[in-house]
Structure formats: structure tokens, C-alpha cells
From TrEMBL:
SUPFAM superfamilies: NAD(P)-binding Rossmann-fold domains. It comes from Falsiroseomonas bella. Residues 4-247 form the NAD-dependent epimerase/dehydratase domain. Coiled coil: none annotated. InterPro entries: Epimerase_deHydtase (IPR001509), NAD(P)-bd_dom_sf (IPR036291). This is NAD-dependent dehydratase. Keywords: NAD.
Amino acid sequence: MKSALVCGAGGFIGSHLVKELKRQGFWVRGVDLKYPQFAETAADDFIIGDLRDPYVCRAAIDRKFDEVYQLAADMGGAGYIFTGENDADIMHNSALINLNMLEACHKRNIKRVFYSSSACMYPAYNQEDPDNPKTHEDSAYPAAPDSEYGWEKLFSERLYLAFNRNHGMECRVARYHNIFGPEGTWEGGKEKAPAALCRKIAEAEPGSEIEMWGDGKQTRSFLYIDQCIKGTILLTRSDFEGPVNIGSEEMVTINDLARMIMDIAAKPLGIRHIPGPVGVRGRNSHNELIRKRLGWAPDEPLAEGLRRTYPWIAAQVERKRGRNARAAA
């Protein structure tokens, strides 16, 4: 039986990845600071531990795995990444995890390691026009990410590819673009835009309004979790090291994203724009390279993923209301 290690298996993408690897017949070990929040882990073995600690990394890699997926990071949505208040933690914590994991994999002679980078590493100067952002893979330099999170991702990309060159490893690097779906963080400040808007719309009374940071004209693309997992596994098992974008090319404004969710919820609401962190003006996945090298690219419409995500978040909102009502009684 083939085996896989998923680092960050208690997180949104990691927990979904574990489920898919189990469906494919793998023996799977997960490792994270916590278990998945919204469902039981599907992993055969799960280590609760801090990958900033090299001893935890060595304990997790006590055998030679066929595939290692390194998704663990200190990250969150715009309210966490762009305020500047968490920069030191973001860079220090994520860099330590990657340094420790690569060293542990190298010492165990594990070759095939997937690393999840982010579109946040692309230069801010190429993303000032919301209608024409440039995110093809070779546009990464001269480097000028819009956040320290992006700088750490860029450093770690180079770290994994250097281990390929110098130690004969077969690391694979993907740049994720805004992954969303059920069983992801939906409140608390680390949620991404689709989850935050789903929550706000589910909480709002009909005919009222929701708050949105910025003018809502900034553009993004969003990729449903199932498409992300498919692309991740295809890349990991391919002969292409990357870096390569894994994201949707369906670009929308944040205003339009909110209206799509309102339509799904059958709840027309107003939008009140307020000051807040928004990141770059435009970002959209460029998928020519992934089509060429993997013969595949995400193609599911955004609305399909939102139709599966909104009911799940709306149900979480109702459960929280019920708990609060019982606590107040």
C-alpha cells in the first residue's frame, strides 16, 4: 500500500486532501497543531504537533513516504495578512516549518514533496489594473510581493527548488489562487473573501446591508476545493516541478462575488463600503502553463462552487445562533 504524509492536515485544504488520498487507497498520516474543525479526520494516523519544532518533523517522518504534501503555514485572509500586525509571525513560523520539513524529508531520502505556494508572491506592480492583472508564472521577477506572506512564499519556493537541484529531490511547487469550499474557516478573521461574504449574507436580515472593505471593484478569481485537490495531485505525480498556478481564470469583482452569493441565497441586500485591507487591485490565475505541462486546468464555474459552499456556511451560522440563544435563555 502506498503511503502519504499531509502536513497541515487539520486545515481546510489539507483535510480535503486526506479524504481524496484515502479514496485512492493510500495509507495517510496527518500532522497539524489541531484536528480538522468541522469533520473527523480521514487519516489513518494523526500527529498533533508543531512543525516549527524539528523533533516533531522527524517524528512525523519516521518512515519513507511515497508522497509528502506540505500545506502547513501561518496564514489567513486579508484581515490577517495585510494589516502588518502579524508579519513577524507569518514569516518566522512558515519559514521554520518549511526549513524543518525539507531537512527531515532529505534525511529520510523522500523524493516527492509537494509545496503549496500562493499567488500572493506575484509582484504588486503587475496587479494594479483590476481589469488586466499579470500572473503568468515567469512574471514573478523582479520580485515585489504585496505582503510579507508573499515574500515568505517566494523564499520557500526557491528553497524547495534548490533542494531539487542540490539533493536530487523531486519537489513540486504550486501557486494557489484563493481556494474555497465547505469545511473551511468562515469566521474569526482568518477567513477568505467567499467565506466572509457567505457568512455576512447568511447573518443579514432581508433588505438590510452588508459591510465590505474597499470599493469592491478589486478583482480576484476563486477556485473550488475539489478542483484544487485534483490539480495538486496531478502536479505531485507529474514530471514537472513548477512553479505553476492552480487557480481559476474566471475573474470577478468582489462586488460581483457578493451579488452571486446573494442570488444563491435569494436574499437581495445592500453593500456598504468601508475602509479596510484589500490587497492588490487585481489578481487572476493564468493557466496556459498548467494546460501545456499537465494537460489540465480548472474549468468549473465559480457559481457551482458557491452553490455548494453557501448552504454549508449558512448552516454554521444557524447553529451558532442556536447555541447563542440557548446560552442566553
